[in-house]
Design a protein that fits this description.
4 copies of one chain form a homotetramer. Chain A has 361 residues and is of the alpha/beta class. The first copy, chain A, contains 14 helices and 12 strands. In chain A, the strands form 3 sheets. Chain A has a 6-stranded parallel sheet with strand order 6-2-1-7-8-9, sandwiched between helices. Chain A has a 3-stranded antiparallel sheet with strand order 3-5-4. Chain A has a 3-stranded antiparallel sheet with strand order 10-11-12. In chain A, helix 1 packs across helix 2.
């Protein structure tokens, strides 16, 4: 009998429907099918591996995930330390703050009459609505808080830690910002100026001259120092955008100053963008290797799916499958109130890179 | 206090992670979030409604779903009569036959060396492999079977019923073709010539002159007559392509001859294509209303997702949530061995439309 | 000085804007940029190469290109023999016939009120409208013509040749069908049952029992025999769908019977679909090599773009750049009125493959 | 005779191929076809209208356009004042600087061996390569320049003006940064920290403590003040990302302080992202109306195309068609060296919004 080709090793096992399967059981069956179903199952497997390894896990978050109903999933990932550091767009943090302050986004229609919405001062995000008036209220709230801060430059990380603290004290409500505050998980927001949080900060200057200074270059230094201090890292990216690049850039920047850094050991992205137009959001994890953003032997998977489908399944599955790994995790310990912040007791300054390599000294 | 806008009625309820949630519980929580997560949950709700109403449910199936591990999901939908009539591409039926005959598709890589695969005679479908030699074996098997048939034209529906029967008798294995045979569910394959089933049929002519005649125009007549006989219909479409259009066309064609036909009452599509390039695969369900393909008051939803993610979840959820509806369903009863085939005892000829309207007489 | 990497050979040359550049000049400048701009320029270059080589050029056409204003581009490509054989969806041929018969599609809006359109019996294709009443007129016209034909099975190729002839005699108007008739270029329509041409054919049975028989399995035989007779081929695909696969399948089928066939020597596709969901429309040209659809040393390019942008530029550019190659082309000569049809004087039967290989005898 | 429906007014005019058509002639013919071809032609028409009206034209630029060969198109648009203000990602400015400094990006392959590239220290952007070593040289060059600046916070706009000036003085080469410097066109880079320009700035701190402070909140104030000073605006967006949102946000922010601001009067976007996943990059221009980002009676068009195809055509067409409008344009006059910068002689501070509305005082 003829030998099988070396390429034909693992048969596809058709997905078998069974009433009552849980999310983790679904994903186990999806590992042996094809296309994005298999990739989602692989993402589940890789995230489990991250949790068992000694790595700092970055979570990047772009797209309207908070407005779209995923903020408590992200809060859950932070509180239970599935991730160690969040990099987010400003909008996701703003929409989180909006709900933490007791307000809502609303179920709407993608086929709305936008002129009618404009007249009612309703802002539309695809099939989701929010009140412009409430948004203006948030802006003022942020501005007022920013005006209370000592007049100096804050990295977005430090500002967001303080904002989360203020939000927690004021509301005692769960959310992304409050979860990160309570769990001592740093949040970076490199494009904070491109969001309503930035708008709130800018309005602080109307209340108090010189308020609202964010040192986003200091964010680069801090994020790279985090990796210099703890060189083994993993990257989980939802939706591309500035968070995806910032997480990669932190690794590349850290490598200038420490040879121990060698790109993320694990990478998982859930994206809807595609590689063939050249944009960073859709860029492949293979391409990321050429830059040294990923270790060439990294475990990695790219899932082409809307996060509003993929993330609820993935997080629910992990809640069961990853439970044993969470308690044993060697997770970094941050002190975010310290100046400079610390990781595992070591300082993470924002004013200068910690140089480890001789060549760089 | 100011009144809320009429647009702000139903708050988004952030998805709450909980270990052990089953597929149907996941979808219930996803109904109150946004974007494609909400749409998938709505698809679940709409399919439940279909099953409670007195409608003939068409399932359209394009894309490499059988090779990709979804054939037993489709077989399950057929055997349990979540659907009443399948319209498929030839490839999906061929890859189903391939596995029902005891062969496999294999887990492969999307980053394969295709020249190496070609040398080993391995055919690649994105991240999935199959043996060309085994495919040639299937072609011969189909050709030999076709050569045994009485020399006349068969609609694809009749041919596939006979092929399913032969496959069942030979293998006693589950699959799409055998499930449809056993459950008396008709399968149409309007583009059968554009597939390896067509290739097998064409090779039958080498064995027996005049073999392999498929009357695909008769398929149009049969499918429209089905709807003329039972005018209330629903459409579930996976992936666009010829099945999507054929299901809609059957309704439009039926309406020429019966005013009782008024477009599908329910429509659900899981697609990855988009509307803005004008192709039928990605066309919106709103556009379908202009053609009369859908009733203007139809319940409908379009889910932008890969079927390898969306269908396992949806089918698993329905296996629990829709169970009570299945036994009570007023489903059409087919006799597919009869010539002409019958639906609920009434003839469904392929040689002429049943004219109901006076105007059309 | 350090040597450059072997990877850094050809610098990107930024596109330089200059008033009055013609389409071909645009494409020459786009060869040295990146992403899909470069790919479009490469498509221009590859099509020129095809025209200089001794290959039969297949053109596949899916998506609403005729309704969308590209039918005269395709007619131009046929009349001037940029291509030798068309494989099309039925809709493109139907919408072509619609206009050739003196009717129009209309500029519409993608944000239309589809219920209002339905009331006015206007059919919408994204941003384009047509009159349902005129469409019904076409269906009748096709039915009446089909009813005049001798009662026997016709390959879609033969039927479309006759339909084109009738259309030309009736209207003397340019279009795809009439161009193909006049230029003796065969048209295959493997999914003709999934279109309004099929609907017209089905209605012919109401007028004349037994009318409207299309032998689409015969199309497989004819198309493969074309390649067996003339094994060097090239493929130009617009939009995926059944035409893309049918052109590839013809080559694979032909190879069963002739070792001289070795996959297309050139392949160019303009698609909007993507590979990562596993569907054939978006499948890569690399994957096609594994199947033997493409020669492993073929010149090939995939352009990710809407054909309504890419094709006008490409065809306009070729009108200048390819002119010298057209007159010298070694193009196949068809006799489509003969039974069987002939290519370069050799018979191309639809009832049996021409076996060349000893092994296949 | 029956009257035509009100929906059927303007027939589609099939595109007629003609050798030697120039870009503007192509677009004129594409206005009467469908889908993205028509949209690209409409973009041409809308840009012409912008140039004839008294509006400040913002250009947003995301995606790897500079690396991909479009930087001289953007420089041309700036120098000839097709646009008045650029909002860009940092990468586009960095890759522009890379080439202005006499270095290159290179034609590469999307199917590269990334491990081999990593070994050669070649960075890949889809099908385009660059030398990591040269990139490190740029970072140092930026760091050294930043270290020469007076120690204070600079808006990204002011920093980029100074960087462009230094680059011009050093190289005398054309490019985006140098064109903007010479044409006195402001550039904002709200996510400058998420780019290699940011990395260069961060490294300046290694050379000179306290260097590299960017006041991106000041950018919000400056950009809104620009619109408060000159409320009629237009938006041209390439590829979404932070630039798209920042341009819209500036209008929304300005409206808080001046009722004369009412959203952009014209909006044109060339995007590849889609609306249905809820992200801002793919969001529709209709949705933008609900937010007041666009005037509800604005002229607007969204083109779904890769900018490497769409922009060369569009810019080349405008070079001929828009020439008469350019000289007569009522374009804003900036003094970017002034502190604060001025527009038409009026101050544009970064430390406080200019309040025009009484209500806001």
């Amino acid at each position: 009998m003829k030998k099988k080709s070396r390429f034909l090793q693992t048969p596809i096992e058709p997905f078998a429907v069974e009433a009552g399967l849980s999310a983790d059981e679904l994903l186990v069956r999806m590992e042996k099918i094809s296309f994005q179903g298999r990739n989602l199952a692989t993402a589940h497997r890789i995230w489990q591996k991250m949790l068992q390894d000694d790595v700092t896990i970055f979570l990047g978050m772009a797209g309207a995930l908070s407005a779209g109903g995923l903020r408590m999933v992200v809060a859950h990932l932070i509180l239970n330390r599935y991730v160690d550091c969040l990099v987010s767009t400003g909008a996701n943090l703003y929409h989180d703050l909006h709900e933490t302050r007791g307000q809502h986004h609303y179920v709407g229609s993608a086929h709305a009459d936008d002129a009618a919405l404009a007249e009612d001062r309703i802002d539309r995000v695809y099939d989701t609505y929010a009140s412009e008036e409430e948004f203006i209220g948030n802006d003022n709230w942020i501005a007022s808080f920013a005006a209370t801060l000592e007049k100096r430059a804050y990295t977005s990380r430090e500002f967001l830690y303080r904002l989360g603290g203020h939000l927690w004290k004021t509301t005692k409500q769960e959310g992304i910002l409050t979860a990160a505050y309570r769990a001592n998980v740093p949040i970076f927001c490199p494009a904070i100026a491109d969001s309503s949080i930035g708008m709130g900060l800018s309005q602080a200057r109307q209340q108090k001259p010189g308020a609202g200074h964010i040192d986003i270059i200091g964010d680069i230094v801090e994020s790279a120092n985090l990796i210099i201090r703890r060189p083994r890292t993993a990257s989980v990216v939802l939706g591309g955008g500035t968070p995806k690049n910032f997480i990669n850039q932190a690794s590349v920047q850290a490598e200038f100053y420490s040879d121990a850094v060698g790109g993320h050991r694990y990478a998982l992205q859930i994206v809807t963008d595609v590689p063939h137009f050249g944009g960073a959001s859709g860029s492949s994890l293979e391409e990321a290797q050429s830059w040294g953003k990923l270790a060439t032997d990294s475990a990695r998977v790219s899932v082409q799916a809307d996060a509003t489908i993929a993330l609820p399944i993935l997080a629910t599955a992990l809640a069961k499958s990853a439970k044993p790994f969470l308690s044993k995790r060697k997770k970094p310990v941050f002190d975010l109130a310290a100046r400079p912040m610390t990781i595992d007791g070591a300082a993470v300054p924002s004013d200068r890179f910690e140089e480890v390599n001789e060549s760089a000294v």
